[in-house]
Amino acid sequence: MDFKKFLSTYSGVLKENRFYRIVLGVLLAANLLLGAAVLTHKEVVVLVPPDLRGETRIAPNRGDRHYQESWGLFFALLLGNVTPRNIEFVVEAVEAYLSPQIYQDLMKDLYAQAKNVKQSNLSISFEPREVMYDEQTERVLVKGQTVLRGSYGKPQMINKTFEFGIEVKNYYPRIVYLDAYEKKPKEGADGQ
After folding, report:
1. Residue 13 confidence (pLDDT) above 90
2. Percent of the chain scored above 90 by pLDDT?
3. Cα–Cα distance measured from residue 142 to residue 120, given in angstroms and rounded to the nearest whole number
């Protein structure tokens, strides 16, 4: 038997064994760090408001201009397009976004309008033309044209503006102010 060859082979096996022990220790440490990172990582919530037109920044209690404009447009389209068949759905959908400060008054108005839409068999459609953010009042203005269609008579076209005050509470939009005002277009005008 060749001891020299045996010792060099045994020595190589020992060196290789030490090398694998070091690699095993590094891998074990990496797995422990990865496990700790996965267990302590908080879920990232990504919100995409309807019709988002630009980069948006949102904090737990503040949304930027683009965020508010997107939600304002969404609410205007929701409130501006109603029929006798979908009016309850619209009221329930808006109800979830109302601030407690305006909830009672606004819900009373919405139910009165819902009753009117059903009794008159009205179909209301809203075509937005402009969305803007008023920096001074921090309100979103959605301007457009409303078309009222009843069971009889020809449709009425009315220029309408929805004005929303939107605040953010825990990343969730809240309507703190809502007003809609209208004026009839002049004869021969294109509705703008």
Report:
1. no
2. 36
3. 26
